[in-house]
Amino acid sequence: QLQLVESGGGLVQPGGSLTLSCAATGFSSDKCAIGWFRQAPGKEREGVACISSSGGRTNFAESVKGRFTISRDSAKNTVYLQMSSLKPEDTAVYYCAAVVTTITDYYSLTASQYDYWGQGTQVTVSS
């Protein structure tokens, strides 16, 4: 059974950087497209970034383009979300999600496309 564990959240000042990790166990993350989502209080869950199983295709929400990057380390079965130039509006619980796929260039920012979810990690951007 595929399980995902996020880590790396915390409190950071505006303009700062943070890297979130999504570690997969029970299954090779190389066979999965991975997405990062976030949900702030009172708001709907939002797709932030995603990466195909091959790692060759990525996509980002307009609100984070140019500030966030996504990458994967096959040897560690881990996907990373590098966040920089953080803003208070980036404050949310961040979740990673996975969908097993044989389509190596498949990716999606739509939450309903994903079958497996982590427990989330809190990111707070505040001075």
Can you describe this structure?
The protein is mainly beta. It is built from no helices and eleven strands. The protein has strands spanning about 5, 10, 20-25, 30-40, 45-50, 60, 70-75, 80-85, 90-100, 115, 120-125. The strands form two sheets. Strands 2, 4, 5, 6, 9, 10 and 11 form a seven-stranded mixed sheet that branches. Strands 1-3-8-7 form a four-stranded antiparallel sheet, with no helix packed on it. Strand 4 (about 30-40) and strand 5 form a beta hairpin. The chain is globular, with a radius of gyration of 13 Å. The relative contact order is 0.32.
What are the SSEs and their pairings?
Blueprint: E1 3-7, E2 10-12, E3 18-25, E4 32-39, E5 46-51, E6 58-60, E7 68-73, E8 78-83, E9 92-100, E10 116-117, E11 121-125
Parallel strand pairs: 2-11
Antiparallel strand pairs: 1-3, 3-8, 4-5, 4-9, 5-6, 7-8, 9-10, 9-11
Most strands sheet: 7 strands, mixed
Alpha carbon gyration radius: 13 Å
Strand content: over 45%
Order of helices and strands: EEEEEEEEEEE
Beta strands, count: 11
Q: What integer is the average pLDDT? A: 95
**DSSP summary: helix tally:** 0
N-to-C span: 40 Å
**Structural class label:** mainly beta
Helix content: under 10%
| Overall shape | globular
> Spans of 5+ residues with little confidence (pLDDT < 50)?
none
